[in-house]
Amino acid sequence: MRETFNFCAGPATMPYKVLKEAQAELLDWQKQGASVMEVSHRSKEFVALAKECEADLRELLDIPVNYKVLFLQGGGLSQFGLVPLNLLGDRIGDGKTTVDYIETGIWSKKAAAEGARYAKNNILYSGKEEGYISVPKQNEISPNPNSAYLHLCSNETINGVEFFYDIKNSPIPVVADMSSNILSRKIDVSQYGVIYAGAQKNIGPAGLTLVIVREDLLGNASPYVPDALNYTLQAKNDSMLNTPPTFAIYLMSLVLKELKEKGGLEEIEKLNHKKAFLLYNTIDNSRLYRNRVDVDARSNMTIPFTLADPTLDALFLKEAEENHLINLKGHRSVGGMRASIYNAMPIEGVIALTNFMKDFEDRHYS
């Protein structure tokens, strides 16, 4: 285990075991005499790796057979525009097509702003006025059956709110940005039309974007979508239309195997609940620390908190680093602190953080 615990929101900490394994075979992968970064993506060895990686992902998430798994580039942010470009086809800019958005934080707000370039926005819910501290209840969501699809961000990394349910039986496809909580718990993939995720939180390193798309939604791309980012073309070519992010796929394959070794998502979810409880319990039983998010919407992945005395912020961060707890500074748009405790953060890291927080409060806030 590392001596330093990295609470960075992304690119985030990677599993120690995965990094050690990658280090051991970095110069010679599968006795190829070359690094995995140096072999052809079309070689039989790498193709086998990519297929095994997809199979492990399908097993962990229980992905139905009528869904395609794509390994793309461009990051999660690019999907804010690529989703409409791939789903709306010749309806883009016709002045009639609407897309439903649920706005629960800064990332879903950005997605809606980008989507407005291609279709009319129909904001079903916005938490902006209250400061993005909640998500709507299941019975509060009424998708417009005439909209093309419904978009949401299942975990807001900046604001610290998370959906803990799948929207059931929507009359239109549900599109979810799961960049920061995918693989953290079990989900019902069949309730979604598209799931996308940047890799750099729970999947692997930055540079890989995962897209899971229901087959009946393929074939609707705008002619202006670049081939390399066209869902339909990439699905037909097993994500090998162009050179994929090979090293990121390799690391993802190692991450998935570790998740399986730990008992799959059922066990991972239990551990994530335990880690989050430890940190929230420390905050809630403190005079110094505050978290404003509604209890039933509090993220298990990204936990923002503020200090009652903000003049202590700089000292908190300085002493945290001295105690080998790094990257706890909150996002510039909201300030305060933020602890990102994705899958790869061991519970020992959360214990170390909570112990430090209690000690810091005892010494500096009486």
Automatic annotation (TrEMBL):
The modification N6-(pyridoxal phosphate)lysine is found at K201. It is found in: Cytoplasm. One of its GO terms (molecular function) is pyridoxal phosphate binding. Its cofactor is pyridoxal 5'-phosphate. Pfam families: Aminotran_5 (PF00266). Its EC number is 2.6.1.52. InterPro entries: Aminotrans_V_dom, Aminotrans_V_PyrdxlP_BS, Pser_aminoTfrase, PyrdxlP-dep_Trfase, PyrdxlP-dep_Trfase_major, PyrdxlP-dep_Trfase_small. Keywords: Amino-acid biosynthesis, Aminotransferase, Cytoplasm, Pyridoxal phosphate, Pyridoxine biosynthesis, Serine biosynthesis, Transferase. This is Phosphoserine aminotransferase. Pyridoxal 5'-phosphate binds at W107, T157, D177, Q200, N242, T243. Catalyzes the reversible conversion of 3-phosphohydroxypyruvate to phosphoserine and of 3-hydroxy-2-oxo-4-phosphonooxybutanoate to phosphohydroxythreonine. The gene is serC. NCBIfam families: PRK05355.1 (NF003764), serC_1 (TIGR01364). Belongs to the class-V pyridoxal-phosphate-dependent aminotransferase family. SerC subfamily. Homodimer. One of its GO terms (biological process) is L-serine biosynthetic process. Its main location: cytoplasm. L-glutamate binds at R42.
